[in-house]
Amino acid sequence: MTDTTTPAATAAPHHDHYPTLAELDDTARRLATRWPDLCRVRTVGTSRAGRPLTLLTVGHGPHAILVVAGAHADEFAARAAVTDLAHHALTHRHPDLTWHFLLCLDPDGAHLADGSRTARTLPAYFAHYYRPAAEDQPEWAPAIGADLPESRALLDLVDELRPTLQFSLHSTDVGGTFVQATTDPTALAHPFARSAAHLGIPVETGAFDTFHLHESAPGVYLMTPHHIDHQERTTGMLTPHQGDRGRTGTWFAPQRHGGETVLVEVPAFTSAHLGDHRPADAAHRHLRTTADRLRHRGTLLTALLDAALPHLRNPDTPLLRAARTPLTALHQLADAWDPEVHGHDLLHTPMTRARLTGIDLWAHRVPVRAAALLRRAVRVAGAPAAREAARLDHLLRDWCAQYQRRFEPVWLPVAHQAAHQANTVRAAVALRHPAP
What is the pLDDT of residues 232-241, one digit of tens each? Predict the structure, then answer.
């Protein structure tokens, strides 16, 4: 659906679905065909499987704005936000700016995750779930020493464009919204909060992956390389590669040219069980119980993987590699949270109810992701692994139901997801480059 009443008849979209990559590419090429003096489309690299990395450019100003979509295969909101922002760049032309939109950083992963794109319930979302292994994620691959062509293309693009602002647009299954930035984002707090309130999106102030970041305002965080390294070690998702100047991934690359990066997170499903800043009750017991549950679920999944492996022809498929990342995280997170292991450090931080809720959110999310990925990987073996596949079906249904009961997720319309990301991007750009 489009609205052709916008200035210059640029047909800004009213989203009722996440665009496919083909639709996104078609939109970019239509804009370039209709406004060849303002819009250009080019290929800036190729994925591991030979898919093009496509860049849409709008404008001719001296300062570059780079917007990266599709950094994670399971996150679809950015596709709609990029479309909104491209039309905005056309209808509100800033003479000092050139906008660059990398339509999808990981098209290979997006291809494997496409079955979740049309889901509007958690069970449907996880039925075809895919998120690559840590070493296969282009945005983070340099952080662990992995050399991917998609990562090189993005880093080369940053060096070519020298953007004053890079935006990485992210989303998650259940939760709220928050922002991370590589320079002090305090000035962004008000427009960010206003957009979230207008669109009915809770601000998430207890997300576990922000525990080690400086909070400039509710849900607004400052990133430094040291904090990001610490964050990724304790979340169990990555082990930073020591001695590599790019070990913090692609986020800090614009700093080489005086630029900064802003990450905008939105949920696909919102939850009202966020943002309680009162002191947590019985935090020690809660952390210990959560750690034990993670270990138990990790043990169950590991045993099923071991039983299925003899029936799998290829033990190194993208799905199996992907499953091993959350499986590893289950055990590492359990130790990170258990007060009898490393979790005692958490008890010395201001442990609010929001932070315990953030831990609980991860404690439900990570096992469900692991089970969903492992089930897809095992199903390809057919009858020989039918017993393991059936068991994984049962665990996924059970854990997904528990996830739903705990957080009561409510679908957030695609238009709201996209509008909030676009609002936050525009606000950050206006702060850095006020209109003349």
Answer: 555 545 444 4
